[in-house]
Amino acid sequence: MAGRPGENTLAAPAAYAARPSRRFWRLHFQRRITLWGIAFVLPAILFFIVFKFGPMIWAIELSFTSYDMVSEPAFVGLDNYRKLMADPVFGASLFNTLVYIAGSTVLITLVSLGLAMAINTRVPGARYCMMAMFLTNLMPIIAVCLVWRFLLHPFGLMTQLLAPFGIDRVDWLTDTRTAMPAIIAVTAWRFAPYFMVVFLAGLLAIPRDYYEAAEIDGATARHRFVHVTLPLLMPTIFFVVVISALLSARIFLMPYIMTGGGPGNATRVLSMLIYETGFSYLKMGEAAAISVVLFAIMLVFTMGQMRLFMRGERVHG
Amino acid sequence: MADAPILRPPRLSVRLRPLYRWIGLAALLALTVAFLLPILWMTTTSFQAGEKMFQLTTDWIPTEWHWENYPNALSRAAFPTFFFNSTVVSVIVMVGNVVFCTLAGYGLAKFRFPGDRWVLLAILCTLMLPLEVTLVPTFLVVYKFGWLNSYQGIAGPLVIEAFGIFLMRQSMLSIPADYIEAARIDGAGELRILWKIIVPQCRPALAVLAVFSFRDSWDQFLWPLTVVSVNEYRTFPLGLVAFGEDYGTPPTEQMSIAVLATIPVFLLFAVLQRWVNRGFGLSGLK
Lengths: 317, 286
Description:
The complex is a heterodimer of chains A (317) and B (286).
Chain A (H helix, E strand, L loop, with lengths): L12 H4 L3 H43 L2 E2 L7 E2 L3 H8 L1 H32 L6 H13 L2 H11 L5 H6 L13 H29 L3 H9 L4 H29 L3 H6 L11 H11 L3 H27 L7
Antiparallel strand pairs in A: 1-2
Chain B lengths: L3 H42 L23 H8 L2 H32 L5 H10 L9 H10 L6 H5 L6 H12 L3 H9 L4 H12 L1 H17 L2 H6 L8 H10 L5 H29 L7
Helix pairs in contact in B: 2-13, 3-7, 3-10, 3-12, 7-10, 8-9, 10-13, 12-13
């Protein structure tokens, strides 16, 4: 590569700026680098157009039609949305999805922050406790659902464990009052350890000096938490809330396996409704309309994340 | 130690610390056991006799070890095929994510091109377009490609995830641009720079990406359920659910399959564990 005209320009670009022939080569060199950058990103862009943005636009289009995969889509205007508004099952599913998002987001955030702070006390062996807890996050969701379905069975382990406390058998998954809280708790069991790791990384990034300074100033543990930890952890908390909300919004398997959407419609969520409407009843237009509603919910949560991103904050994995 | 008076208050709390440490450790151990209990239950149940279920007692160590639950369970349905399919799909997804997220992450971290901020924002937007949301149209796309009942159909829509691109980009941002420019001046090609300079520094992030992309694909249920209709291409979660609906099969055998399904993910984590901790930014934790 010796003697390539462009190579020295990086070392001293100003010296060559005035000389036209050199400038030509410099632009060429820079442009080649730019083209490489585009080439690296291009596969991902094309992929997202085919499998994310294309389908989303198609979903919006389909939501104004009636389509069953056999005959051509027929334009029906807002009929699908009107039908949804009048459908009590859709209303219940929308309500359940929102309850589920709120419940699991709050529970996941609190539990994972609590666990991270427990690990961060650095008691001997804390690292191994963390790794052990993280295993729940690696267990296949289907296994999680099946195991918990047995554990929460009226004759399951939960009843055994609660018996010494005088709590009689509870039909966790078949009682309208407990089914949704039970699924939310299982969700937290499965996902909190991941966010625990995220919080832990956030906690480790807070300089020790801040705590020492606060301690010297006589701040109690509670004060240190409120005035040092919380403010510095805010971006992480925000990240955890947004990501766990997006995660909960798309939940399907937990209610599908543990309760099948029951009892009644107490745990039916939008993703289950999309699948049933689209593929059991082949009402693809109506299913697309539900997708648009679910998308709108997720958009609200992503907006927050995007604003943070636009402000030039760190984007977490 | 002239300023000892200022240091005295913290020392007081230092003296109390051993007690706190023991209480803390006890609490942490209790939490860990609470989190691990369902996994232990799954493992021990997979070795129990079928009639032991729902008797309101749990033998944490089985009095009789029923190893035959495993071969029995595997022979009830085409589970060897299902596990093979899951492995093929998950490996495709893992390799796809590792390769393409590294490329895209590098392109976005270390190159400037017109509209690069918009690309970044667009990729962020795909976080709200999971398969559950775009289920119907993505199914129609795969149908138009003629990919129903095929590995590429199950793996295709999962091959690149926005999460991976951000993870890789984030880990590359801190690599000094000087390294790259120096290599360029030495005449190294762009792909060589990526392979020789960038990738070795991103091993922790790559390990995290490999574990999570494998697990996410291994976990997929709704998507395979939608695009697969023949046993030949079913993945293990579909088989496991069909298994559960068949009331003739004892739940203990279901647990055997659940244990077998958990092992590959735990193994992958164990192999990459050294890097994963650093990838999470936990190198400060001893």
